[in-house]
Structures
1.
Amino acid sequence: MFKALKEKLFSARKKLEKTIEETAPEPSNTPEPVSKALPHSEPVPEKSPALEPEKKTPVGFTEKIVSFVRDREFIISEKDISDILDELEMGLLESDVAFSVTEEILSRIKKDLSGSKRKIGTSVDSIVKNALADALLGVLGEGVDICAFIREHERPVKILFTGVNGTGKTTSIAKVTRFLQNNGFSVVLGAGDTFRAGAIEQIDVHGERLGVKVIQHQEGSDPTAVLFDTVEYARAHKIDVVLGDTAGRFHNRANLMNQLAKIRRVIKPDLIVYVDEAVAGNDAVIRAEEFSKSVGMDAIMLTKVDMDPKGGAAISIAHAVGKPLLFIGTGQGYDDVRAFNPRLVVEDLLGDT
Ligand SMILES: Nc1nc2c(ncn2[C@@H]2O[C@H](COP(=O)(O)OP(=O)(O)OP(=O)(O)O)[C@@H](O)[C@H]2O)c(=O)[nH]1
């Protein structure tokens, strides 16, 4: 996953490590700390080998020397790393990371690294890796534990899917059904995309294969009525989760908004999940922002992440829209779905290639 992005991050990481290593004084030239050299000076308290939180920019020469001589530390200056950060900026943009997200990542890395004091002997790779990891986690957010969410809500939990047609919405509903079944939840499906020809048959086939009931009306019927019946069915049969398909497109945007407003009013969904495809890159992010502003959503599912080496949409979308990325689709099979876990993704992105 995200091979190209991983390579860019790896290259920036190694260059940052090398630069920081080179700005550190040679151990053999390291003078004795002031506390040892001058017996009457104040004892210098032992500090953690990690980066000091205290930041001072710009870093003056005198400050560098004082810090170095007294504390056997050296300070990483913004100048030391600026060329590499410029290169990383280009790399992120080329990987389809949204501009605002790229800027956020760089500003977090700069804030973390520049002006910070590094104790001589501290491992450079952990300093750099931590700075990159914190910056990426900062834009990816905390994520959502969907199983905990379901357990904490009154049953049936109602999750509706919407988004652009052709991006894999129906397959995604089927995959999430399998994911929830694997986690011990029962599911009923509502064929609420009554607008697109063939959508009802498509979800019906998935339901049959997965062994779950699909509530359906005729093509062109009122989606709110279909979803209302689905919720009633779930209540009557003590089913944990309703997964409702809804149309991603209507005759016009106002029509779509009115439909979703009606569904919201009547069904009161717990989550509206917007589905788009990672391969659309920055376009997926722009579409999601527009959809969020005009129609509204609570969470995002990105499909076809397996086909997207760039990874920009997956990195950017949650931060750009301000909603969590809930699931990623990683293939065409029912099991090719993962709950999006920002920590695991960052670990993967910063793993040695
Ligand atoms: N490689 C890959 N293919 C996917 C993924 N999700 C869906 N697909 C494929 O994308 C194609 C379209 O998916 P469908 O679920 O049929 O969705 P759709 O026809 O676009 O229609 P909507 O349901 O309206 O979005 C199918 O061939 C799916 O197998 C994914 O995560 N990875």
2.
Amino acid sequence: MANIDTPIPALKLNDGNSMPMLAYGTGTAWYKTGDEGKLDQAMIDSVKTAIKLGYTHLDGAQMYKTETELGIAIKESGVPREKLFITTKIPGGDDIEGALRTSLKKLQVEYVDLYLIHHPFWAQSPSDLQTAWKTMEHVRTLGLTKSIGVSNFLPTHLETILSTASVPPVCNQIEFHAYLQRPDLLAVHKKHGIATVAYGPLTPITKASPGPVDEVLKVLVKKYAVNEAEILLRWCLDQDVVAVTTSGKEQRLSDYLRVARFKLTPREIEMVNERGVEKHYRAFFQKQFGEGDRS
Ligand SMILES: NC(=O)C1=CN([C@@H]2O[C@H](COP(=O)(O)OP(=O)(O)OC[C@H]3O[C@@H](n4cnc5c(N)ncnc54)[C@H](O)[C@@H]3O)[C@@H](O)[C@H]2O)C=CC1
Ligand SMILES: O=CCc1c[nH]c2ccccc12
């Protein structure tokens, strides 16, 4: 039974669909480096726990090699398909329709809610991205996904696909937290009505700890009687950014849901932002961005 007394808000997307603003991720903590066929029962149990607690937005990817586990958990949860928001991602631009059909089989669903191009770094030329985006539009028309979007795209990649797109991406899933605020990229999102979806939202208290936002977090933790993670997740939501987090610990998953119960003030968001820009930290795709790049 769901333990949410206050529902997680949803964000309206530019194609009219809605996305729950807190997601459970099946990548970090769960992705496999080895044999995809070896089932991870701990992950299945954790996804079922998350769904039981009230998570409806589940973030997957072909690259994580965990779509089969995600599919089993969804099926065993007993929650009707239409109550869930399921995302998965294709790593590159080859055979997008075939890759999506394979993902759907593993996920044991007829359609996903959101299909993303995981990153743009495989493309050799702008036309590679444009061709891939046309195929994304095609799989949406076929009804294999309700919405289409991208991940880890920079302004130049977005402008490239937008210049030939019939349907714009609903979102760009990016690393986003107090130490990687990416104002230029978010301005492009805003200009085109593209939602920002944050992965790595807890980085300031995990990989990049200690740091300059710690003092502000301490004050806000006391004021709202929650923990640091919840402040960081709420900091996303209060800037209209969807947060994708994860944990194998039921208590943490349960705690995160308290984000629905409070709001930060504009001044509190600003305080986190002001201290956050004092430090730069990128956990993912460092090689592709290059040392010290802040975009
Ligand atoms: N599109 C992309 O390229 C990427 C997408 N993702 C997606 O986002 C999801 C979440 O990514 P993360 O970086 O893991 O998000 P995150 O920054 O929310 O970190 C979650 C991790 O922090 C740990 N944690 C939580 N509270 C903690 C505490 N107080 N102390 C120490 N550790 C704590 C959790 O156990 C979990 O392992 C992934 O599972 C995946 O679905 C993640 C990375 C890249
Ligand atoms: O999506 C998160 C980051 C990432 C990029 N490549 C891989 C491969 C396997 C797991 C995670 C990732």
3.
Amino acid sequence: MGKYLDQINAPKDIKSLTLAQLDKLASEIREEIITTVAHNGGHLAPNLGVVELTLALHYVFRTPVDKIIWDVGHQCYGHKLITGRREQFNTLRRYGGLSGFPRPDESEHDAFATGHSSTSISAALGMALARDYKRENSSVVAVIGDGAMTGGMAFEALNHAGHLKTDLIVVLNDNEMSISHNVGAMSGYLSRIRTDPKYSKSKDEIEQLLRRIPSIGSTVLKVAERLKDGLKYLMVPGMIFEELGFTYLGPIDGHNIGPMLVTLEQAKNLGGPVLVHVITEKGRGYGPAVQKADKFHGIGPFDIDSGDCLKKSDVSTYTEVFGNTLTRLAGDNPDIIAITAAMCSGTGLSDFAQKFPKRFFDVGIAEQHAVTMAAGIAKSGLRPVVAVYSTFLQRAYDQIIHDVCLQNLPVVFAVDRGGIVGDDGPTHHGVFDYSFLRSIPNITIMAPADENELQHMLFTAIKQNGPCALRYPRGTGVGVVLDAVPAPITVGEAEVITEGKDITLLAVGNMVQVARKAGVMLKEQGILATVINARFVKPLDENCIIKHAMRTGRVITIEENVLAGGFGAAVLELLQAAGYTGIQVKSIGIPDDFVEHGTQSELRRKYGLIPENVVDTALSMINRRKIKGIK
Ligand SMILES: Cc1ncc(C[n+]2csc(CCOP(=O)(O)OP(=O)(O)O)c2C)c(N)n1
Ligand SMILES: CC(=O)[C@@H](O)[C@H](O)COP(=O)(O)O
Ligand SMILES: [Mg+2]
């Protein structure tokens, strides 16, 4: 017999299946997800945890008329598989293939694009308000994890929705995990609900009722009706959510489709804001992902039998060097405090957290709070280091300006995943940070050319008497030998790697390696380049840049950042302010466009962040008429 999944071309196709058939379909979906992620990499554990929930949601609601908004969106693979994208599922996260996140431009069933956390309830409320204003008839459902529920935006939206009393359903997918174990008082509260005896009572009652009916479909509605009177059993009195104006339903077992159908049907018919609390197991159905939900949250290609990752490198990642250096520096400096917003292992802080538990804070998915809390710590004389992915730092822009930089406080921002991150795509590339940070007074911005320079820069940043951002890329370093001891570097001083008369290649961060290689390739063609590791985006080494720009008359800037307002723009501003407008300058970086998903190397090639493009650009500049008076 063929697979049920073979017959599912649209969500309506699941509605003719029995509960037993839905369970079978759930297993097939799991198998498909495991096989594909083992090959392509992706967010395995979150997706395995929501397979039954996905089927229940699509059974009760009718997308695209009804809207399902997946918070973060890293758990939408099952949804993709039953909304007409199974054929392309093997292209998941591949360049030109399916995105790993919901994308309305990919399917009408993807109601809203997500990737960053805690946005779903706000977006859902907005859609519900628009629906009511336009007098339409549909359900709007936000599906949010317990981790995402730690984000401030989620609370802001609950607060507003509870006040408005708009028809809106929030499904809280509670698996006790963020990427690591979930943190915070709300998490503790949810865990107390889970262990409340009323939970098992309500679960037993629904199951007993369902066992008495022969099939599902319209009977789900009947059971939901009959349960209306018994609704009190499903409500735990005094709930925070009730107090905020939501009807609370649950907690219910997120792997038992029958009771979920009943509860979701109820939620649909209740009116007003309703929160359905669903308990799931992260990684469900694949042993290694259950046991190591953290590792299997997001993973590269792996061997299904052993759960071992396939791509291993002997070269340390920038993240590892950052984590090791910070832990080492903290051993000598008791003032160092490390802060993460739910990205402890991702930012390389696991060792630090173990060694210095009193000096480590995971604030949950709360970047804004992390930054202002760091400001408070810095104001009190300590040295906070906020380790954060570039893309998530965007959340805390006002806090950086208003709480840190305005008071010139010594907060170090360890900005990981700067530049192109690869398969996660446009929601996650860290390509805006030079631009958005550079415009803020008081901040120092540095980017290491390799992992050895990273350790020296971290040492330097911690010694600074003002805010400092240290930006480095995702992935392995260059493979250089690390100096035995981290040492200070002079703030605002660039490093001249080679000197040549024909052109200046001025690069920053990981692009220094590209410039270096381009310099070698140009030399093979008889063109002598000055190659400079700028090290600092702010302050620029003005004297060095002007001197070499004047001497060669031609400059190419290279950065893995958007060109708008970035490093190249800073160099142009410098040359213009200094009156050197006749120097030829070309800037290589990311154009005014969102960068798609693909491997880092595919995307770097696409945007010309490779030595060959630097060489071509240099050749085109050199073949041009020399600018009068410059050389
Ligand atoms: C603003 C923001 N910060 C951090 C992240 C990284 N991140 C992605 S998923 C996740 C954990 C989400 O936990 P939860 O919502 O409970 O979903 P689960 O993976 O447990 O299903 C984190 C921290 C993010 N996507 N957005
Ligand atoms: C969904 C999400 O935001 C994270 O899981 C992110 O995908 C992690 O990225 P890294 O793989 O770079 O740690
Ligand atoms: Mg969770």
